[in-house]
Amino acid sequence: MTATAARRRRWLSAGGVLITVAYLLPVYWMLATSLKRSSDIFSTPPDLFPSPIALTSYTETVVNHAGIGRGLLNSTVIGVGTTIVTLAVAVPAAYALARLRVRFVALLMLLFLVVQMVPAVNLALPMFVIFSRAELVNSFAGLILANCSLAIPLAITILRPYFLSVPGEVIEAAKIDGCTTWSAFLRVALPVSTPGLITVAVISFLGAWGEFVFGLALASDESMQPITVVLAGLTNSFGTRWNDLMAVSVVVALPIIVVFVFLQRYIVGGLTAGATKS
Amino acid sequence: MTTTVAPPGTASTTPARAPRRARRWGDHLFVLPAVLFVAATVLYPLVFNVDLSFRDVGVAQIVNGGGEWVGWENYADQLGRDEFWHALAISLLYTGLAVAVAFALGMALAVYFNQRFPGRNLMRSLLLLAWILPTVVSANVWRWMLDGSYGLINTLLESVGLIDGDLFWLARPVPALFAVVFATAWSFTPFIMILLLAGLQGIPDTLYEAAKIDGAGAWRRFTSVTMPLLKPVNLTALLLCFISTFKTFDTVFLMTRGGPGEATMILPIYAYNEAFEYFRFDTGAVATTLMLVVPLGLSVFYFRSLRREELS
To answer: Compositional bias of type Low complexity: which residue ranges (chain B) (predicted)?
Structure first.
C-alpha cells in the first residue's frame, strides 16, 4: 500500500464517476428538460442547466391534466393489487418448494422459469379474447391477473433461495414445539425471510408500475389505462412539448427512483437472483 | 461413549416419519394456488392461442366465440407472407445487434467496476437505474435525445464533427434501427454488467498476479485469464439477454411503431398489429405462436448453461 496505489484508486474513482455521469445523462436530461420553459427547450446549443428553473410543466400540465391523475391512480391500484396477489400466491409456493415435502420440485421450478421466457404479447393476445368473453377487459381484475401471470413465477424464483437459506433445524424445532406446518411457516420461516419478502414486493410493484403491453392491449378505455399507456398517448397529443412530456416521464419514473434509492440493496440482489438461480 | 448410543438423528426421526408422509398432501396445498394460477394465466392462454390460430376469428368471434376451424390455412397465409419473414429477420437483426452492443459495454463496465476503488458499489447500483427505469420512460427520453433538430445526441455528434446538419434518426430506416438498438442496449447493459460482475468476483486474484509476473499486459490478462474463466457466465448472460431482448416490445413500439416503413418492424409489434390494429386475431395468433419458438428453443440452451455454471 503505497502512495502510487492510493493515487491509482483516486483516478479510478474519478473515472468511475465520469462513466456513471455519462451513462445516466439521459436521466439527467429528462429532469433538466422538465424544468425548462417552453421557449428554452429549443435553444441551440441546448442549455445544459435549466435557467431559470421553471416548474410550469408540473404545476400547469401535470397537475391539470385529468388523464395523468387517473393514470397514476390506475397504476397504483394495479401495482398494489398485483403485489398483494403475488405475495399471497408466490410466498407459500416458494416456501413449499424449498422446505416442504413436495413432489416434482425440479419440474415445477423449471415451469416457473420457462414461463418467464414467454413474450407479453403472446399472453396479451389470447387474454384479450378470453377477457372479452368474460367481461374482464377494461377492469382492474383483468389487468391485475395479467400482471400476476408473469410476476408470480418471477417471485417464486426469487424467493426460493431465501427459504432454502432458512436452516431446516429451526423449522423442525418449531414443529417439535407443537407448531403445525402452517404456523411454522407463518411464525418462523416468514419473519426470518423478511428481506426476501421485501425484495419480491418491491419487484412486483415496480414491474406492474412500468408494465406497458397488458395495459395497452387490455385497457382500451382511457379511464382504465395505467400511466404508462397514458404517457404513450401523450407523445402524440403533446407533440414537441418536450418539457411537458419529460415532466410526465419524471412523474412516472419518480416512484421507481424513490424506491430504488431507499430499497436499492433489496432490488439489486433480487433482480439478478430471479434471472440466474433455479 | 458406549455402543448403546444411536447415531444422532436416527432415533428421533424414525417415529416422526409416518405422520410426516401422511401430511405430504397437505404440503402440496402451499404450491397449489401458484400452479393453478400459472396454469390459468399462462398455460391456458397459450393453448387458447394455438386454438385461435387454427380458426377463422374476426371481430365478431372475439366476443361471441366460435370461429370456423380452418386447419393450417392461417399458417399457410403467414408463412407465405413476406411481411412475416421480414419481421422475423428484423427481430433477429435488432436482437443480435442490441445484445452485441449491450454485452460489449456490459463487459467493459464489469471489468472497470471490478477494480477496487472508493465508491464503486454506489456507482454500480446507480448504473442499474437505466435497467429498472420503465421502458416507456426511457423510450420517451431517447426520442427527445435523438430529436433531429434539437436533440442532445446530434448536438454532441456535431460538436465533434461526426455529422453535419440535422440527422433525423427515427425518420430514416437505418438510423432508426440503430436508434432502437442503442436505446435497448442502454437499458440492458447495466443488467449484463451485474451478471458478469458476479462471475468476475469468482476469479481469484492470484491468477492475475501470476499472469502479471509472466509479463502479460492488461489486454492479455483479459483475453487469457478473464474471458476463458468467464465463459460459462458469458454464455448464460448472452442467452438470457437474447431471450429478453427478443421479447422486447415497448422500446421499439414507442420510438418508431415499427417504422419508418417497416424498418424496425420486429415480430412482437407485427403480431400486435395483426391482432389489435387489423383485428386479425387468427393470424396474430399464428405469428405469436411461431414467435414462441425462438425464446423457448433458446431457453433449452439457457437452462443447460445455468446447470453447467452451477456445477463449475
So the answer is: 1-17
Decide: residue B15, CB within 10 A, 0-12 exposed, 13-18 middle, 19+ buried: exposed
The pLDDT value recorded for residue A217 is 93
* Tally of CA atoms within 13 A in the half-sphere of B105 that contains its CB: 20
CA atoms within 13 A on the CB side of A147: 33
A44:B155 CB<8 A: yes
Give yes or no for residue A116 having a pLDDT over 50.
Answer: yes
- Using 50, 70 and 90 to split pLDDT, how confident is the model at B13? very low
Band (B3; pLDDT cuts 50, 70, 90): very low
Percent of chain B with pLDDT over 70: 91
Residue A38 domain flag: no
What domains are defined for chain B? 10-69 (no CATH), 78-311 (1.10.3720.10)
Residue recorded with cell 390506475: A74
Q: What does the pLDDT read at residue A272? A: 60
ipTM (interface pTM): 0.89
A91 assigned to some structural domain:
yes
Query: Which of B132, B146, B234 to probe the A interface (max A CBs under 10 A)?
Result: B132
**What is the per-residue pLDDT across B29-40, written as a single tens digit (0 to 9) for each?**
888 899 999 999
Residues of A in contact with B44 (CB under 8 A): 130
CB contact under 8 A, B129 and A260: yes
More confident residue, A177 or B83: B83
Query: Which pLDDT belongs to residue A275?
Result: 52
| Residue A125 domain-assigned (yes or no) | yes
Q: How far apart, in whole angstroms, are the C-alpha atoms of residue A81 and residue A209?
A: 11
B55: helix, coil or strand? strand
Span B166-197, pLDDT tens digits? 778 888 889 999 999 999 999 999 999 988 99
Contact A102 B31 (CB under 8 A): yes
B167, B223 contact by CB (below 8 A): no
Helix, strand or coil, per DSSP, at residue B56: strand
Q: Is B198 exposed, middle or buried (0-12, 13-18, 19+ CB in 10 A)?
A: middle
CATH for A100: 1.10.3720.10
Q: Which of B38, B66, B40, B59 is nearest to B284 (CA)?
A: B59
* Contact across the interface for A114 and B296, Cβ inside 8 Å: yes
CA distance A163 to A150: 21
**Residue A129 resides in a domain:** yes
Q: Which domain holds residue A205?
A: 67-276
Average pLDDT for B305-310 = 77
Lowest mean per-residue pLDDT among B23-27, B30-34, B138-142: B23-27
Considering only CB atoms, B117 lies closest to which of A16, A93, A249, namely A16
Q: How many CB pairs under 8 A join A and B?
A: 288
Work out how many domains chain A is built from and give that number.
Answer: 1
Tell me, yes or no, if B107 comes closer than 8 A to chain A by beta carbon. Answer: no
